[in-house]
Specification:
alpha/beta, Rossmann fold, 6-stranded parallel beta sheet, globular, flavin adenine dinucleotide binding, transferase, acetolactate synthase activity
């Protein structure tokens, strides 16, 4: 067949790496078979859950962790399936990906767009990965020692992220415990969403951790409502910041009117947290135009007829999230970050701002 050459290269590899993007969302069965055969798998944040976090071959989405980068550097083949290899997941394209590099993408314009590839296959990821998985017989790559290195790297990466999240790791865990296994997390572009929401919160299957592919804020609440209406039997957590919510504040009325099964989690830090972090990191701490005058979101939600809670202590995360997520229909939880503490985040790791 026309892809025999790179299949031969893959068979000759000892420790191949599979990088999954959104184009591989429909590939869960094939990816699991390849992972069972020993391919190490890392995903973009959009493709999280295609391979469950619990799989021994999963590096999850810890691209920027030194321990995970060390594991990837030990691989000897890279297969990129349906991913743009975005700047925020590759340290502004400075992350070294092992050769030979093979890319699968249905869009011809994606060929070597961000990384120079040794081979690009213009094809549908589910079809090609399924055909590839059918050729696998038992364990093809890696060994128990390599599996231990992978799991150790993930443990270190998660520990580092938990330390960065501070008290908010407890909020992540509270949602994890209270949200049913089939529950959905819908994230706006916000500090919490980009930090613990995107990489720390569980991913047991594809399209269970949903977010906008654009960088603009404000879509979280409308997306959460739409997700809940499309999945009426599943509980949805909508994760938003006060800045993003302010762009679509009127949709709180829609949430109440439609009785959508959403618990809206408002991370209120009184401004644009990402902008604060960027100005601290790149502009000597000079702060401009990132403070917001916002309403009392808890009172506003109650005025619209929504059940609402306000949390200003990390010790209360578990009790409040358990109560809110046990209640059918819409609800609001406002987290007062000013009282709990700031999240340290200044955008993805990169060499320079421009």
């Amino acid at each position: 067949m026309w892809w025999t050459h790179w299949w031969t290269q893959l068979k000759q590899a000892k420790l191949p790496l599979l990088w999954l993007g959104g184009g591989a969302l429909g590939c869960a069965e094939a990816v699991k078979k390849l992972a069972d055969a020993g391919m190490t798998v890392i995903s973009s944040t959009h493709a999280r859950g295609v391979l469950p976090d619990s799989h021994r071959a999963s590096l999850r989405a810890f691209h920027n962790s030194p321990s995970v980068e060390a594991v990837m550097s030990g691989c000897d083949f890279t297969l990129v399936a349906g991913s743009r290899l975005r700047s925020n997941e590759t340290r502004s394209w400075t992350l070294e990906l092992p050769h030979p590099r093979v890319q699968i993408d249905i869009d011809p314009a994606a060929a070597s767009r961000n990384y120079l590839m040794d081979n690009t296959l213009i094809a549908d990821c589910p079809a090609l990965l399924t055909a590839l998985a059918e050729r696998v017989q038992g364990r093809e790559w890696g060994n128990a020692q390599w599996d231990a290195l992978v799991r150790g790297a993930v443990v270190k990466a998660e520990q580092g992220l938990r330390e960065q999240c501070g008290e908010y790791a407890k909020l992540n865990d509270a949602i994890d415990q209270a949200l049913p296994e089939d529950g959905l997390l819908v994230r706006d572009i916000t500090v919490s969403g980009s930090l613990w929401g995107s990489r720390l919160f569980r991913a047991n299957g594809p399209l269970m951790n949903i977010h906008s592919l654009a960088g603009a804020i404000g879509m979280g609440l409308p997306m959460a409502i739409g997700t809940a209406i499309a999945n009426p039997q599943r509980k949805v957590v909508g994760l938003v910041g006060d800045g993003g919510l302010s762009l679509n504040l009127g949709e709180l009325a829609t949430l109440a009117q439609e009785k959508a099964n959403v618990t809206l989690l408002i991370m209120n830090d009184g401004g644009y947290g990402v902008m604060r972090g960027i100005q601290d990191k790149y502009f000597g701490g000079r702060q401009y135009y990132n403070e917001l005058h916002t309403p009392d979101f808890t009172l506003l939600a109650q005025a619209i007829g929504l059940q609402a809670w306000s949390v200003d202590r990390a010790e209360d995360f578990a009790a409040v999230m358990t109560e809110a997520l046990a209640m059918p229909g819409p609800s609001v939880v406002e987290v007062k970050m000013g009282q709990i503490g700031a999240l340290k985040f200044a955008g993805p790791p990169q060499k320079t701002l421009y």
